[in-house]
Amino acid sequence: MSKKVQYEIEYPVRCSPGILYEFLSTPAGLQEWFADKVDLKDNVFSFSWNGSVEEAEVLEQEEDEFIRLHWLHAPKEEYFEFRIQISEVTNETILVVKDFADKREVKDQSQLWDYQIKDLFHRIGN
Protein backbone atom coordinates (compact mmCIF):
# COMPACT_ATOMS: atom_id res chain seq x y z
CA MET A 1 0.00 0.00 0.00
CA SER A 2 1.45 3.36 -0.99
CA LYS A 3 1.80 6.12 1.56
CA LYS A 4 -0.42 9.12 0.98
CA VAL A 5 1.06 12.55 0.40
CA GLN A 6 -0.23 15.89 1.57
CA TYR A 7 -1.21 18.41 -1.05
CA GLU A 8 -2.57 21.94 -0.91
CA ILE A 9 -4.82 23.97 -3.23
CA GLU A 10 -5.45 27.72 -3.03
CA TYR A 11 -8.63 29.48 -4.15
CA PRO A 12 -9.07 33.28 -4.15
CA VAL A 13 -12.49 34.15 -2.69
CA ARG A 14 -14.54 37.33 -2.84
CA CYS A 15 -16.06 36.91 0.60
CA SER A 16 -15.33 38.00 4.15
CA PRO A 17 -13.45 35.47 6.33
CA GLY A 18 -16.39 35.39 8.77
CA ILE A 19 -18.97 34.41 6.16
CA LEU A 20 -16.61 31.91 4.51
CA TYR A 21 -15.82 30.30 7.88
CA GLU A 22 -19.54 29.66 8.47
CA PHE A 23 -19.68 27.67 5.21
CA LEU A 24 -16.62 25.64 6.25
CA SER A 25 -17.36 24.90 9.90
CA THR A 26 -21.09 24.57 10.53
CA PRO A 27 -23.51 21.78 9.58
CA ALA A 28 -25.81 24.27 7.79
CA GLY A 29 -22.91 25.82 5.88
CA LEU A 30 -21.32 22.50 4.87
CA GLN A 31 -24.69 21.12 3.82
CA GLU A 32 -24.95 23.98 1.30
CA TRP A 33 -22.01 22.69 -0.77
CA PHE A 34 -20.06 19.78 0.71
CA ALA A 35 -22.57 17.01 1.41
CA ASP A 36 -26.26 16.21 1.00
CA LYS A 37 -26.80 16.18 4.78
CA VAL A 38 -24.50 17.22 7.61
CA ASP A 39 -24.87 16.69 11.36
CA LEU A 40 -22.54 17.55 14.23
CA LYS A 41 -22.52 15.71 17.55
CA ASP A 42 -19.75 15.62 20.18
CA ASN A 43 -17.26 17.28 17.82
CA VAL A 44 -17.87 14.71 15.05
CA PHE A 45 -19.44 15.67 11.73
CA SER A 46 -21.57 13.09 9.91
CA PHE A 47 -21.59 13.72 6.17
CA SER A 48 -24.19 11.97 3.98
CA TRP A 49 -23.97 11.53 0.22
CA ASN A 50 -26.59 9.44 -1.60
CA GLY A 51 -27.32 7.42 1.54
CA SER A 52 -23.64 6.79 2.36
CA VAL A 53 -22.38 8.29 5.64
CA GLU A 54 -18.80 9.26 6.51
CA GLU A 55 -17.72 10.73 9.84
CA ALA A 56 -14.98 13.23 10.52
CA GLU A 57 -13.76 14.47 13.89
CA VAL A 58 -12.84 18.12 14.42
CA LEU A 59 -9.17 18.06 15.43
CA GLU A 60 -8.59 21.78 15.70
CA GLN A 61 -10.26 25.02 14.74
CA GLU A 62 -9.91 28.74 15.17
CA GLU A 63 -12.83 30.99 14.30
CA ASP A 64 -12.50 32.80 10.95
CA GLU A 65 -9.08 31.15 10.38
CA PHE A 66 -9.21 27.37 9.94
CA ILE A 67 -10.84 24.05 10.71
CA ARG A 68 -8.99 20.72 10.57
CA LEU A 69 -10.92 17.46 10.35
CA HIS A 70 -9.94 13.80 10.43
CA TRP A 71 -11.95 11.11 8.66
CA LEU A 72 -12.55 8.42 11.30
CA HIS A 73 -11.74 5.65 8.78
CA ALA A 74 -8.38 7.22 7.79
CA PRO A 75 -4.94 6.79 9.39
CA LYS A 76 -4.36 9.09 12.38
CA GLU A 77 -1.79 11.30 10.65
CA GLU A 78 -4.13 12.17 7.77
CA TYR A 79 -6.58 15.07 7.87
CA PHE A 80 -8.19 17.65 5.67
CA GLU A 81 -8.19 21.33 6.45
CA PHE A 82 -9.87 24.52 5.31
CA ARG A 83 -7.69 27.55 6.08
CA ILE A 84 -8.60 31.17 5.43
CA GLN A 85 -5.71 33.51 4.66
CA ILE A 86 -5.53 37.16 3.69
CA SER A 87 -3.00 38.07 1.00
CA GLU A 88 -0.65 40.75 2.31
CA VAL A 89 -0.15 42.04 -1.23
CA THR A 90 -3.73 42.18 -2.55
CA ASN A 91 -5.68 41.99 0.74
CA GLU A 92 -7.69 39.23 -0.98
CA THR A 93 -9.24 36.36 0.98
CA ILE A 94 -7.73 33.00 0.05
CA LEU A 95 -9.17 29.58 0.90
CA VAL A 96 -6.46 26.96 1.30
CA VAL A 97 -7.55 23.30 1.19
CA LYS A 98 -5.10 20.73 2.55
CA ASP A 99 -5.74 17.03 2.07
CA PHE A 100 -4.00 13.67 1.61
CA ALA A 101 -4.11 11.31 -1.38
CA ASP A 102 -2.06 8.59 -3.02
CA LYS A 103 0.61 10.27 -5.14
CA ARG A 104 -0.98 9.08 -8.37
CA GLU A 105 -4.42 10.32 -7.28
CA VAL A 106 -3.51 13.89 -6.29
CA LYS A 107 -4.62 15.31 -9.65
CA ASP A 108 -8.01 13.53 -9.50
CA GLN A 109 -8.55 14.53 -5.88
CA SER A 110 -7.62 18.13 -6.70
CA GLN A 111 -10.21 18.13 -9.48
CA LEU A 112 -12.81 16.83 -7.02
CA TRP A 113 -11.98 19.72 -4.67
CA ASP A 114 -12.19 22.14 -7.61
CA TYR A 115 -15.70 20.88 -8.31
CA GLN A 116 -16.73 21.13 -4.63
CA ILE A 117 -15.23 24.60 -4.19
CA LYS A 118 -16.94 25.79 -7.37
CA ASP A 119 -20.25 24.78 -5.74
CA LEU A 120 -19.24 26.63 -2.56
CA PHE A 121 -18.46 29.77 -4.57
CA HIS A 122 -21.82 29.52 -6.30
CA ARG A 123 -23.54 29.37 -2.90
CA ILE A 124 -21.71 32.43 -1.55
CA GLY A 125 -22.24 34.38 -4.76
CA ASN A 126 -18.56 34.42 -5.73
Structure description:
The chain is α+β, with helices and mostly antiparallel strands and 126 residues long. It has one domain (4-123): Alpha-D-Glucose-1,6-Bisphosphate, Chain A, domain 4 (2-Layer Sandwich), CATH 3.30.530.20. 27% of the residues lie in helices and 44% in strands. It has a seven-stranded antiparallel sheet with strand order 1-7-6-5-4-3-2. A hairpin with a 6-residue loop joins β6 (80-86) and β7. α1 (17-25) crosses α2 (27-33). The longest helix has 18 residues, at 106-123. The chain is globular and about 40 Å long. The chain starts with a strand and ends with a helix. The mean pLDDT is 95. Pfam families: START_2. Residues 1-125 form the START-like domain. InterPro entries: START-like_dom_sf, START_2.
From the N-terminal CA to the C-terminal CA, the straight-line distance is 40 Å
From the alpha-carbon coordinates, what is the Rg to the nearest angstrom? 14 Å
Count of structural domains: 1
Largest sheet: spatial strand order: 1-7-6-5-4-3-2
Element order, helices and strands?
Answer: EHHEEEEEEH
Measured by DSSP, the beta-strand proportion falls in 35-45%
Mean pLDDT: 95
CATH topology description: Alpha-D-Glucose-1,6-Bisphosphate, Chain A, domain 4
**In the CATH hierarchy, what is the class?**
Alpha Beta
CATH H-level homologous superfamily name:
START domain
Low-confidence stretches: none
Biggest sheet layout: 7 strands, antiparallel
Strand tally: 7
Shape: globular
- The percentage helix is 25-40%
CATH architecture: 2-Layer Sandwich
Q: Decide which structural class fits the backbone.
A: alpha+beta
Tally of contiguous helical segments = 3
